[in-house]
């Protein structure tokens, strides 16, 4: 039985390899080859906390994965991380526990960022270079990392914008140590008007990015809205996009960026293509250079499965 | 973060202390003080396997528990145990993972046996001495152990019966090394006719214990039937019992020993008292010496929670 700590896990993750498996996972979901039972959930109202249990199995995989993730908002005041958790990898042939991955949420952060970068890579105009990152938290930083690692051949530059100038400076200082192509954006409207790509990563409950700011040819990857009530993009922007892409149709219609437009009956299920459908060649991606495309990602358990598989196989390859 | 192996866990379990917490757990369930979300379940038909995820939180507890248990029937042919699993203990205040208990099912086996011994202790006639154990597997052995440990003051003797004479001998030889008061029963009818207590532990799908065999004053603890279709006691025996006790009313009506009699409309929910109700003094236990009483136990996640708490607190007490 293998037990790995967060630093061990981070060292084993190769973004390119992870992206391959996550693309495979998106295809498997869209082709109906994944067994994903309902997510387990338990709440702790006294401490503003909850725990989600996501688990599933991809047809033919030798392992299945159970991911336990907790979120306790009061932790911040105690100087503790709000998110915690681990992933269990079990044999799908014998039920034996193969590995306990104490990733403390880093696998979730990284798979979310890789999902975003996969969507961007798939849907941008060929000559896209300037990426605006909305938000300054962990996910904003992970998106910069994932976009750079998955589009290494492109001469990308990043503009990071956050509501707080202080936090923006902090994020940019940290990021620019590793990635010299990162700068702060003083004004979001101006940044959006000049962007080839906009990546939104906030927990906003009111739209931040306005329709008028977004120019033809822009691609938007939105990963912040992962629960009912969250929204980063104006409803009009979503409703008028030339191409709308999601990770999972029913999940995004329920609580993704597209759910508001769907509830207003401005769009329907037929307006949406799943990333897996595009990756499998079953649906087209971007049609024209001047299109505005949006990828709305709510996060899938199958991404967690892929991450756990990558970590386990990298560990085993390293050991052998 | 604490990680314990099966031998470490077994060494930390004190039956008396565990029984206290499991009795407390039964009371908490019956008083509605436990948050038990629906059990998670995923199947692997190719390998005749499945995985259950049970989790919950007892009001006021500093921790909550997630138990993962797998059952892969094909393992037996491979020389591997069919059951596997672990329990996670997490803080109910911060969501942090406190412990991973790699018990490989032994906590489940022990808590099931302790539940049985609690029921027996609670419901027998004062002068009961002779206990017939039906079955020769792990649970039969665990029941002998738990009954002896939780009723140490009584001069108990055990008769073990199994369908296979060979397996019965094997079980008795093993048990009598630790417990001299254990003998084999050649004939189940005869054994039942002389029994004060009958404990059934098999996975039988047809009744084994007949109504005519059971004498006034006998108590029966039945722990084998834990899924629809399993039955160890004749329906008539259940329907005509003077006292019917269960661990959880809806669960036992669905897939316990009492479910067959309930479906035949011979008994209803009002015929049943929960152990927690009796332990809390809300319902009476055995009324008269000559009554036949039956305790039908299907196993509760709250027992798993109690076991994980015991192991963790014993470990912490040992370390400090």
From TrEMBL, chains A, B:
UniProt cross-references to Gene3D superfamilies, sorted A to Z:
NAD(P)-binding Rossmann-like Domain, ornithine cyclodeaminase, domain 1
GO cellular component, alphabetical, reads: cytoplasm
- State the name under which the record lists this protein: Ornithine cyclodeaminase family protein
- Give the enzyme's main class according to its UniProt record, as a single word: lyase
Q: What is its EC number?
A: 4.3.1.12
Q: Molecular function terms in GO for this entry?
A: ornithine cyclodeaminase activity
Q: Which domain of life is it from?
A: Bacteria
Q: Sorted alphabetically, which InterPro entries does this protein's record hold?
A: NAD(P)-bd_dom_sf (IPR036291), ODC_Mu_crystall (IPR003462), ODC_N (IPR023401)
Supply the alphabetized keyword list: Lyase
């Amino acid at each position: 039985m293998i037990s790995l700590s967060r630093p061990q896990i981070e060292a084993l993750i190769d973004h390119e390899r992870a992206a391959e498996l996550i693309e495979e996972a998106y295809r498997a979901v869209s082709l109906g080859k994944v067994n994903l039972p309902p997510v387990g959930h338990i709440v702790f109202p006294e401490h503003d906390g909850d725990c989600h249990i996501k688990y599933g199995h991809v047809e033919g995989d030798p392992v299945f994965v159970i991911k336990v993730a907790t979120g306790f908002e009061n932790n911040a005041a105690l100087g503790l991380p709000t998110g915690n958790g681990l992933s269990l990898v079990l044999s799908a042939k014998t039920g034996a526990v193969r590995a306990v991955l104490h990733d403390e949420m880093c696998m979730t952060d990284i798979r979310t960022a890789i999902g975003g970068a996969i969507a961007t890579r798939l849907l941008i105009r060929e000559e896209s270079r300037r990426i605006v990152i909305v938000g300054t938290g962990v996910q904003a930083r992970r998106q910069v990392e994932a976009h750079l690692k998955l589009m290494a051949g492109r001469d990308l530059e990043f503009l990071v914008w956050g509501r707080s100038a202080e936090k923006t400076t902090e994020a940019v200082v940290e990021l620019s140590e590793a990635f010299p192509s990162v700068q702060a954006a003083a004004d979001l409207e101006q940044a959006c008007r000049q962007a080839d790509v906009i990546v939104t990563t906030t927990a906003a409950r009111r739209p931040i990015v306005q329709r008028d700011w977004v120019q033809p040819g822009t691609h938007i990857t939105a990963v912040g809205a992962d629960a009912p009530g969250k929204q980063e993009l104006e409803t009009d922007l979503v409703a008028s996009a030339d191409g709308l892409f999601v990770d999972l149709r029913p999940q995004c219609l329920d609580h993704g960026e597209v759910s508001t437009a769907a509830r207003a009956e401005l769009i329907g299920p037929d307006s949406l293509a799943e990333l897996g459908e595009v990756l499998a060649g079953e649906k087209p991606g971007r049609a024209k250079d001047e299109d505005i495309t949006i990828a709305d990602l709510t996060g899938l358990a199958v991404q967690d499965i892929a991450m756990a598989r990558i970590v386990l196989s990298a560990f085993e390859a390293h050991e052998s």
